[in-house]
Design goal:
This protein is mostly helical. It folds into two domains: 1-41, no CATH class; 43-117, no CATH class. 58% of the residues lie in helices and 0% in strands. It is built from seven helices and no strands. It has helices at 2-6, 16-21, 25-30, 47-53, 57-76, 87-94, 101-116. Helix 4 packs antiparallel against helix 5 (57-76) and helix 5 (57-76) crosses helix 6. The longest helix is centred in the middle third of the chain and has 20 residues, at 57-76.
């Protein structure tokens, strides 16, 4: 991250997704006594199966975003993150009231049909 900023490749670094895996990641980055902070990649369940059923890359990216958004909601409300939570469960939890998972799948399938035809 420091190299990207120092070399002028970026002006900002986002810490939201790394914070989902380690809520203290900002402290590690600012602590100069730690030579290198390593943040693992999230292994999000449910995305691979969906990608096999509907091989559209954008869907997988959307599920990753929903999973991270749910984890950030947990952090903001003082709850522990749930790294074993699947993307589909995160989607069902984060949906606005009145929506169901089935409605969302219908919308997704409708969008896919529009783009394919």
């Amino acid at each position: 991250m420091a190299n990207a900023v120092n070399e002028g490749n970026t002006d900002l670094i986002g810490l939201g997704r790394p914070a989902c895996l380690n809520p203290h990641v900002a402290s590690f980055i600012l602590n100069s006594s730690i030579p290198k902070a390593i943040c693992p990649t999230a292994k999000i369940g449910g995305v691979g199966l969906w990608n096999k059923l509907v091989p559209v890359k954008l869907i997988g990216i959307g599920f990753n975003t929903v999973w991270h958004a749910y984890q950030l909601q947990c952090i903001a409300s003082g709850k522990e993150v749930d790294l074993k939570l699947s993307a589909l469960v995160a989607l069902s939890v984060i949906l606005p009231s009145g929506y169901t998972l089935i409605k969302w799948f219908c919308y997704i399938l409708l969008l896919l049909a529009i783009f394919i035809l």
